[in-house]
């Protein structure tokens, strides 16, 4: 921190702990709205009094709740500070379920959460591309009590947190929705721009978003969302007296207190953060698709400069009310025009409070580069470069042709580690024939090398020997999966967008292209999919069978 240095592992551990402790203390800022904070404190005191006299039905926990929560635990994760892992609970018997049921119901009755549920071990993770010697470049991931996680899963289920009242443009950590849907909305909005039209795209970076959540303001919001008062008291108690330690290279720091933020790694954390930020999306999102959001990744869209500035003013006021900062250097505005050869004329800076937001030629949103020109080509080049680096990193494991692993084993590893990086997010972009050719060349060349085949080997042979698909088929699978997710979600905003875009018939629209793909593989028509006749598993099996059958017939030599 600052000019302070740490040489030994213990010193480094304590320095990191000092940094995370400082991050967990509320900071005052002349720009923050202190009146909002004081009002929330007053309201929370009143809410506590209301809770004492409340006639809300007391929440009870059943054995089925315990089983369901334990099944939700992720496996192969680090053990907690008591050396308990999720596998211990998953392989436990009925007797443990009875003990947990009795314990959890007693917690709800007394509205007192054990201190063991409030402690955690922070593992510092270096942010991508950042210098390892600066503590500010580390993100803290907290490992909490496994039994506490079971309790939090139950509280999450009982509270119905954010299942009603959530902004329709919030796609992060929401059942039935995915970040790709937020990326798709941005792509569809940009694809509509033609001729002299202009669209302003602003990506916002919230500084330490999860770490600076005000507990008082959060609890005030939860009450207004209609949270059961018994559960309100439990969550308020869960975030009182929270402590953490830092684990670093075998060393453990002294314990420190947490007075703000929702811990990254906690079961409730992402849902509580969505509740905290929800009003912003609801306010702006009431207008068309102006604010597609994925947790703390926010993008603003507008066809009008004045409207974009007004949206930025709303964000600025909201950040001051909720005591977080928008990073002006890491937030960007790009201006896309219908005329790809002509630069936008209206490129003056926007204002975020007292800071300028300059217009640039590219920005990043959900791992995809958004740019004023050649957007898809830039992403394709980035994906190929990343896939190639990933492939090189696997060479030592035997993923290569001569004297390496069995080609089919190498192909499975390629499918698991390289292909997802090669294709990430491309289903949401308009990939033309030249860009598809670049991707296909990398894919085909890799499959040849895995089998030690000469370059002149026929494409059909390269695919058939491994049972592999051409790259275009891999993209089609991902596009049809995303289409199914959109049309089968309960989110009426994105379903309405899908129907509007399909009916418009624009050739650059994702929904027009996927309608053609459905016809290509003799799958149900677009409108039939809207009727929600198929389960996710049924649709996955059907598309896999149709795509595999189509390309097998196309590549198998005729006798």
TrEMBL record:
InterPro entries, per the entry: DNA/RNA_pol_sf, RT_dom
Pfam families with a match to the protein in the record: RVT_1
Domain Reverse transcriptase: residue ranges: 106-370
Name the record gives this protein: Reverse transcriptase domain-containing protein
Originating organism: Mytilus galloprovincialis
């Amino acid at each position: 921190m600052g000019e302070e240095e740490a040489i030994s592992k213990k010193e480094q551990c304590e320095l990191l702990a000092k940094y995370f402790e400082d991050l967990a203390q509320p900071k005052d800022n002349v720009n923050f709205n202190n009146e909002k904070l004081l009002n929330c404190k007053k309201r929370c005191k009143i809410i506590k009094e209301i809770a004492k006299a409340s006639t809300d039905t007391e929440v009870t926990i059943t054995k089925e709740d315990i089983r369901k929560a334990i099944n939700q635990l992720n496996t192969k994760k680090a053990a907690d500070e008591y050396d308990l892992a999720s596998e211990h609970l998953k392989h436990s018997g009925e007797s443990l379920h009875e003990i947990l049921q009795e314990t959890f119901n007693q917690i709800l009755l007394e509205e007192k959460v054990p201190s063991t549920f409030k402690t955690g071990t922070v593992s510092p993770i270096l942010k991508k591309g950042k210098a390892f010697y600066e503590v500010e470049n580390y993100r803290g991931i907290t490992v909490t009590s496994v039994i506490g996680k079971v309790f939090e899963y139950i509280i999450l289920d009982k509270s119905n947190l954010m299942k009603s009242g959530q902004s329709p443009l919030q796609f992060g950590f929401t059942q039935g929705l995915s970040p790709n849907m937020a990326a798709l909305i941005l792509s569809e909005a940009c694809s509509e721009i033609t001729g002299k039209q202009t669209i302003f795209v602003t990506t916002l970076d919230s500084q330490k978003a999860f770490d600076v959540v005000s507990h008082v303001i959060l609890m005030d919001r939860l009450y207004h969302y209609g949270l059961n008062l018994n559960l309100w008291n439990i969550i308020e108690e869960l975030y009182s007296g929270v402590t953490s330690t830092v684990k670093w290279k075998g060393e453990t720091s002294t314990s420190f207190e947490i007075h703000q933020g929702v811990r990254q790694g906690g079961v409730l954390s992402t849902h509580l953060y969505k509740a905290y930020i929800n009003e912003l999306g609801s306010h702006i999102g009431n207008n068309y698709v102006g604010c597609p959001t994925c947790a703390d990744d926010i993008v603003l869209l507008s066809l009008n400069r004045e409207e974009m500035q007004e949206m930025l003013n709303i964000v600025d006021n909201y950040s001051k009310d909720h005591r977080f900062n928008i990073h002006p250097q890491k937030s960007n505005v790009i201006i896309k025009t219908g005329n790809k050869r002509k630069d936008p004329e209206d490129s003056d800076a926007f204002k975020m409070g007292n800071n300028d937001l300059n217009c640039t030629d590219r920005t990043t949103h959900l791992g995809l580069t958004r740019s004023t020109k050649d957007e898809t080509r830039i992403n394709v080049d980035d994906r190929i470069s990343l896939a190639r680096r990933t492939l090189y990193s696997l060479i030592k494991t035997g993923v290569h042709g001569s004297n390496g692993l069995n080609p089919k084993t190498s192909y499975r590893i390629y499918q698991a580690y390289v292909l997802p990086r090669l294709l990430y997010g491309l289903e949401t972009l308009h990939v033309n024939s030249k860009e598809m050719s670049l991707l296909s060349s990398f894919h085909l060349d890799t499959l040849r090398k895995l089998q030690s085949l000469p370059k002149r080997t026929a494409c059909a042979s390269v695919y058939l020997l491994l049972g592999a698909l051409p790259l275009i088929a891999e993209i089609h699978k991902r596009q049809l999966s995303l289409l199914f997710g959109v049309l089968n979600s309960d989110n009426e905003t994105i379903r309405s967008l899908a129907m509007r875009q399909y009916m418009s018939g624009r050739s650059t629209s994702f929904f027009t292209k996927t309608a053609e793909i459905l016809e290509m593989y003799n799958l149900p028509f677009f409108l039939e999919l809207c009727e929600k006749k198929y389960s996710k598993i049924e649709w996955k099996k059907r598309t896999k069978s149709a795509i595999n059958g189509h390309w097998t017939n196309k590549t198998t030599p005729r006798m």
